[in-house]
Amino acid sequence: MTGSQSYSGNGETKGKVAIVTGGATGIGEEAVRIFVENGAFVVIADIKDQLGHSLATSFGSDKVTYRHCDVRDENEVAETVAFTVEKYNSLDIMFSNAGIAGSYSSILDLDLKEFDNTMAINVRGVAATIKHAARVMVARKIRGSIICTASVAASFAGGAGHEYTVSKHGVLGLVRSACGELGAYGIRVNSISPYALATPMTCAALDVGPAEVEAAAYGSANLEGITLKADHIAEAALFLASDESLYISGHNLVVDGGYSAVNRWLPRIQK
Asked: Would you indicate the residue range of the signal peptide (predicted)?
């Protein structure tokens, strides 16, 4: 793992079955690795077929499978869930992680087609994964865990493009709303809100390299001495997937080193 020690829990994901959307790269890829390390069976759901297949085969085990899935297409989401249940006979964890950054254009020049596409992936896609994962969990009486990737942009504006900011606010709304209904079935629904990190998605959206993203994020962060990596977010996902978070639901786990909680204006002046 890069940047952190492996999760030290008691293997509560051992034997559990997980789907990770957007699992071929970035946060999703790290989540796949850490879920497998902790004993889970994993279906990687993504549209990056070559990368997804390569990642799945790298484990050298039938515990990991790749499945093409565009979350904009509800049928593909439903088929991926059905495939997972048929192959592994369960679905205990849905990590709804697939997303795009959208554009960084002015609101005056907002491309509504791009806006719609961002909503289709980041919000509608999350709704589809929650819907179809929950259907299986309810029908099979599985006390499952549904985890959605939000963002610090879900808590305030100005740190990302307009459509991304709106979409991540929507993810929080979905998590809280779904939590209210699915708790009656023992199903937990939570989200993770990362601060900026150098995933392929972020680097491509900003057209810069990982070192530049990390330097900019570190320079504006609150917690000194640590550079946020994708595996830090994967560790948080594992916690929410595991039995160590059995009574946590409707929670937005912010992984940002205090960035969104602290106004750094005064400390910077004092320095």
From this structure: none
Structure token digits, residue 10: 């008691």
Say if residue 85's pLDDT is above 80: yes
Among candidate residues 7, 88, 164, 195, the one labeled active-site is 164
Smallest CA-to-CA distance from 97 within 153, 46, 159, 38 is with 46
Task: Count how many Cα atoms sit within 13 Å of the Cα of residue 246 in the half-sphere of its side chain.
Answer: 6
Global pTM exceeds 0.85? yes
In the three-class reduction of DSSP (H, G, I as helix; E, B as strand; rest coil), residue 238 is classed as: helix
In this predicted model, which residue has the larger pLDDT, 113 or 153?
113
Q: Taking a C-beta distance cutoff of 8 angstroms, is the pair 139, 90 a contact?
A: no
Question: What is the per-residue pLDDT across 208-249, written as a single tens digit (0 to 9) for each?
Answer: 676 666 666 656 777 778 778 889 999 999 999 999 999 999
H helix intervals, the chain: 26-37, 49-58, 74-88, 112-119, 125-139, 162-182, 200-206, 210-220, 230-241, 265-270
Distance CA 249, CA 246 (A): 8
Q: CA 132 to CA 261: how far, in whole Å?
A: 34
